[in-house]
Amino acid sequence: MSRIVYVNGEYVPEEAAKISVFDRGFLFADAIYEVTSVLDGKLLDFEGHMRRLHRSLGELEMAEPCDDATLEAIHRELMTRNALREGLIYLQVTRGAADRDFLYPAEAVPSLVLFTQAKSLRTSPAAQAGVRIISAPDIRWGRRDIKTVQLLASAMAKMEAKKAGKDDVWMTEDGFVTEGSSNNAYIVTQDGTIVTRDLSNAILHGITRAAVLRCAREAQMKVEERPFTIEEARGAAEAFFTSASSFVMPVIEIDGTPVGSGAPGPVARRLREIYINTALESGS
Ligand code: PMP
After folding, report:
1. Would you say the CB of residue 25 lies under 6 angstroms from ligand 1?
2. pLDDT at position 141, please?
């Protein structure tokens, strides 16, 4: 079934959507994006996603495509037009179209594209069973805090996991886990402390990460923000990852070693439930 997508001011069937071949998103990956989840017809963590969008735009000296109220209205219109109650809304801003040149063109007008993806997020078989991951060197650039569309390193990593019969990849640099191919990585130590890498340019500042850490601290769970190794993760009581599309996802195996009991652990399961309930209460 064809979706209605948004392209530069127009709502059109996906087959009719058009972007210039000179668009810098296409030529240079000169574009940033956000993915917001929709549950029970509500946008989750929308303000957080808008804050990060502005930060990414600012870091790349890219113009704002429009104000936040307009962006929110487009999200809601797409939900209505596509009858989306559960799934994802993808938003991409590019620097716009200009004759090919590495320097940012002064006159380019940003392109804005949004589309929906219907998806079952709450009752996911992966969340029930847990996922198996492998580790791989992080070959991405040094500004992973900017949410750009240059995702080929992550796509290559995910393909490697698929070929190995596994579900995802945690990436490592200088001996420590940076993050997952499209998520933030966590372990729970044998004494029950939740550990996740501290924020820097080495990782994306996950919106779900911020919300889940807030939930954990409110529930009196101990949280430490520091790097950890794959060896520490393999010996941990639990492991999990977070993202807007997976919420809290238990990891049950790392590089062939079962983590903890080899089944989704109590901390990950509890955090998933608290996060979903909290996000639904504050979502609209
Ligand atoms: N790290 C990377 C590399 C990601 O691609 C994502 C998801 N886009 C995340 C972390 C999680 O971020 P969020 O919780 O905002 O979806």
Report:
1. no
2. 98
